[in-house]
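Protein: Biotin-acetyl-carboxylase ligase
Species: Tubulinosema ratisbonensis
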Amino acid sequence: MKIINFYKLNSTQTKVKELLDTKAYKEKTFITTKRQTNGYGRSKSNWYTGKGTLCFSYAHKLNQSYLQILTNLKETFNFFKIDVQLKWPNDILLNGVKIAGVIVEKYLGYNIIGIGINLFIDSKINYKSVEELTGIKIDKFYFLFVYAKHFLEMKNELIMHKFVLFENKVHKICFLEDNLVLTDEGGKNVYISNEFYSYDCFYNEIIKKK
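Structure follows.
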């Protein structure tokens, strides 16, 4: 495992792509930066990185689902005695407030995983942070180290609800990875795309995206 910290980058995702282009990237390497000027999320929305934000990216040849990544993040927060909620496919919530996001991009046979977390208070941004919501200030590099440890162990243990209400009908939850698969009362499978819906694992609620 190796962590490379840059003072300033346009995007940690873009940096990993550049390293892959030149064959300079080695697996189990995590790229992070103190300042990210052009970071982006899953919908290509801008992710401002202030002094309180941890952003990092890494590439992995094996397919790592959003659920695995979210679970690894939850395990990392558990290590710091912080209970977060998972909102499939790519959000981490704390007390119902988004404090982290995930993006996965396929590139040259790799999955490039990017993660942004608002860890502590930054007067320049209006986003809520872990510190503001819990009073706990976590060192960014220590958090990344703990996450990397969970990644190497490839933990994917998550207690899920068995049933969920969808379109005013009770459905059984059969499968939750990059897509959510339900079964209705008649035994018919219903496929829920993460392009159009999110699933709050804490409140057991399927939410249609706007």
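Remarks: The longest strand covers residues 97-107.
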